[in-house]
Amino acid sequence: MLAQPFFIPAVIFLLISLPLIFGLIPPNRFFGVRTRETFANPEVWYRTNRVAGGAFVVSSLLYLLVAAFFPSNVAGQTDFGRWLVHLLVFAGSLVVSFAFVRSTIRR
Question: Going by C-beta distance under 8 Å and a sequence separation of 6 or more, which residues neighbour residue 85?
């Protein structure tokens, strides 16, 4: 599993999302979803970051499932097509997560 191309970034996203989900990160300029709207209202900050954390956890778990059941290397050989599937699942799910978070901020 460690040999999968985006395993480590997926685990990092998963781990850094947990404090956001549990509301452990107060408004700050370094960690979390930082926009004018989230800085203007602590309620918006916590709601948006909780949603972002959840979306990133789902994205990470989706990638880890793909990595487990559709490995990028078979018999020691890396296949570009499989690697591309991994890239699309990892990056695509993150892009969808960002779009979802952006729509949450506007609510």
Answer: 66, 70, 72
Residue 95 tokens read as 């892009």
Q: What is the pTM of this model?
A: 0.79
pLDDT 10s per residue in the chain (107 long)? 666 777 888 899 899 999 999 999 999 999 999 999 999 999 999 999 999 999 999 989 998 898 888 777 766 666 788 778 888 888 888 888 888 888 887 77
Phi-psi region of 23 (alpha: psi -120 to 50; beta: other; left: phi over 0): left
Which is it for the CA torsion 37, 100, 46, 27, positive or negative? negative
Query: Which residue ranges make up each domain of the chain?
Result: 7-106
